[in-house]
Design a protein that fits this description.
36% helix; D-Maltodextrin-Binding Protein, domain 2; 3-stranded antiparallel β-sheet; 7-stranded mixed β-sheet; 289 residues; Arc Repressor Mutant, subunit A; alpha+beta
Length: 289
C-alpha cells in the first residue's frame, strides 16, 4: 500500500521523536518527512499527536501494523536499512560506526516498555536491552546476551560520601536522595533497588535527558545509578561510590524470534560480541557472556 520510504517517514518520527533525526537517516529534508508522515496518517484516518515528547497515533492501527510487518519482512529479506537502538549509555560502544545495513537510533531509552512496543509493532528491528529486564519468557522474542557488569551508585566528584573515613555501608547512604525512574521502567531492577530502603527521588523521564538525570547530581548530594557504560559517558564528572549495589546488569540483544536465525542477524551478533570482548579489555568491571 505504501512504498518503504513513505512509511519510513512516519515510523522514523515515532522511533526517533525528531524530524531532524529522521532526515539525517533518510537523506531528505524535514518538509519531506513531515509531508509523507502526514499523508500516511491521513490516508488511514489516524490522529497523530506528540505527547510528552513521544509521537502517538490514535485510531484503528490494524492496517498500519499489518503493513509494517510486510515492510519489516522486506528489510530482513533484502538486508536493507535495518533499525537498531539501545538503552542509554550503550549506543556509543556498540552502535557507533556500525556498517550497513544497520541504521542506529539515539540510544536514549530509560525503560523497557516503549522499545519493546517499537519491536512488537515492527518499527524497530533490534534493540540492545538491559539484563535482567528482558522479555526472555515472551515467545515472540529471542534474547542473546553479550555482557554482564555491576550496577554502581554514582555521585558527583565532590560528594561528601567520597570523603567518608571508613568503609561505606548502606546505612551511610540514608539521608541522601537517590534518583529513581518511573514505576515499571525496569521492573526487576527496581524491585532490587527498592529493597535497599534508600530515600527515592523520582525522575519522570523514559528517555535520557541530562538535566533530569545526571544533572540532578550537581547538587553534590543526590545519588544516581550507573554502569561501566554510563561512567564512561560522564567523562570523569561522575564516579562510583566504593559500595556494591548488589545488582548485576548486562547488555543483551532482543529481536523477533522469526528473524533470530537469519544470516544478517547472526553477523550482527558476531560483530557485537567482538565489541563486547573489546569493552571487557578496557572496562574491567564488564565481562563477556
Amino acid at each position: 500500500m505504501f512504498d518503504p520510504f513513505r512509511l519510513s517517514c512516519l515510523d522514523y518520527l515515532i522511533w526517533l521523536r525528531s524530524g531532524q533525526e529522521a532526515t539525517n537517516r533518510l537523506a531528505c529534508n524535514q518538509a519531506t518527512v513531515s509531508r509523507n508522515a502526514k499523508s500516511v496518517a491521513d490516508f488511514l484516518e489516524l490522529d497523530a499527536r506528540k505527547l510528552e515528547g513521544e509521537w502517538t497515533l490514535g485510531g484503528d492501527l490494524s492496517l498500519l501494523n499489518a503493513e509494517r510487518e510486510v515492510h519489516q519482512l522486506y528489510r530482513w529479506t533484502k538486508g536493507e536499512a535495518l533499525r537498531i537502538d539501545a538503552i542509554y549509555g550503550v549506543g556509543a560502544p556498540y552502535l557507533e560506526g556500525l556498517a550497513a545495513p544497520w541504521v542506529g537510533g539515539r540510544s536514549d531509552f530509560m525503560g523497557i516498555t516503549y522499545p519493546l512496543a517499537l519491536l512488537r509493532h515492527s518499527i524497530l528491528d533490534v534493540w540492545i536491552g538491559c539484563y535482567p529486564d528482558l522479555p526472555e519468557e515472551d515467545p515472540d522474542f529471542a534474547v542473546i546476551h553479550l555482557s554482564r557488569y555491576p550496577a554502581f551508585f554514582l555521585v558527583d566528584r565532590a560528594h561528601p560520601l567520597l570523603e567518608h573515613p571508613e568503609a561505606l555501608e548502606l546505612e551511610d547512604l540514608r539521608g541522601f536522595p537517590v534518583l529513581a525512574l518511573p514505576e515499571g521502567a525496569f521492573p526487576k531492577m527496581q524491585v532490587h533497588l527498592k529493597g535497599l530502603g534508600l530515600e527515592r527521588a523520582p525522575v519522570g523521564a523514559t528517555r535520557h535527558e541530562p538535566r533530569r538525570w545526571e544533572g540532578r547530581t550537581e547538587d553534590q548530594l543526590t545519588i544516581s545509578y550507573g554502569s561501566p557504560h554510563t561512567v564512561a559517558c560522564f567523562g570523569g564528572a561522575k564516579v562510583p561510590l566504593p559500595l556494591s549495589t548488589g545488582l548485576t546488569l548486562g547488555d543483551s540483544l532482543v529481536v523477533k524470534r522469526r528473524f533470530a536465525e537469519s544470516e544478517v542477524f547472526q553477523q550482527l551478533v558476531t560483530q557485537l560480541r567482538g565489541r563486547a570482548q573489546f569493552l571487557s579489555e578496557s572496562r574491567s568491571a564488564l565481562e563477556c557472556c
